[in-house]
Write a structure and sequence with these properties.
- By secondary structure, this protein is of the alpha+beta class.
- The protein is built from four helices and five strands.
- It has helices spanning 36-40, 44-56, 74-92, 94-100, and strands at residues 6-13, 16-24, 29-31, 34-35, 63-70.
- The protein has a five-stranded mixed sheet.
- The longest helix has 19 residues, at 74-92.
- The chain starts with 5 loop residues before the first strand and ends in a 32-residue tail after the last helix.
- 30% of the residues are buried.
C-alpha cells in the first residue's frame, strides 16, 4: 500500500452524498461523529454492504474511515458510503482498483426516483378504470 496520509472521496446514491476520508489507523469507522454499529443499529446486511470494499481489499483492520453523510434514507446513505470508501481505496492504491472495479463498486448507481406525472397517482400508476 502506498504511503498516503489521508485520502478523500465522494460517494453518491439516489439523493445521498457521502464525504469520505480514509487514513491509516486501527479499523474504526465513524459516520457523522458516530461509530458504524450505533449508526446502523441492527441492520447487519447493510453493515456488511458498507465494509465490503474494505473486506475485498483486506484493509478492514488497517484503515480508519471518517464520513459525513447528508440526504436520502439509511440504505441509500450506506450505499453512498460504500461508493465513497471504494473510490478512496482506488485512489490510495492502483492494485485496489483492479479488485474493486470488477465487483462494480467504483460505478455510481445512477437510478433515482421517477417524477410524478399529472393525471396519475404516482409516476406510472393511473386512476382506476371505470367502464360505467
Amino acid at each position: 500500500m502506498a504511503k498516503a496520509v489521508k485520502v478523500y472521496a465522494t460517494g453518491k446514491r439516489k439523493s445521498a452524498v457521502a464525504k469520505v476520508w480514509v487514513k491509516s489507523g486501527k479499523g474504526a469507522i465513524s459516520i457523522n461523529g458516530v461509530d458504524l454499529n450505533s449508526w446502523l443499529g441492527g441492520h447487519e446486511a447493510i453493515k456488511l454492504k458498507v465494509i465490503q470494499p474494505l473486506l475485498l481489499t483486506k484493509q478492514e483492520s488497517l484503515l480508519e474511515v471518517v464520513a459525513d453523510i447528508k440526504g436520502g434514507g439509511y440504505s441509500a446513505q450506506a450505499e453512498a458510503l460504500r461508493h465513497g470508501i471504494a473510490k478512496a481505496l482506488a485512489a490510495l492504491d492502483d492494485d485496489f482498483r483492479a479488485i474493486l472495479k470488477p465487483k462494480g463498486l467504483l460505478t455510481r448507481d445512477s437510478r433515482v426516483v421517477e417524477r410524478k406525472k399529472f393525471g396519475r397517482h404516482k409516476a406510472r400508476r393511473s386512476p382506476q378504470f371505470s367502464k360505467r
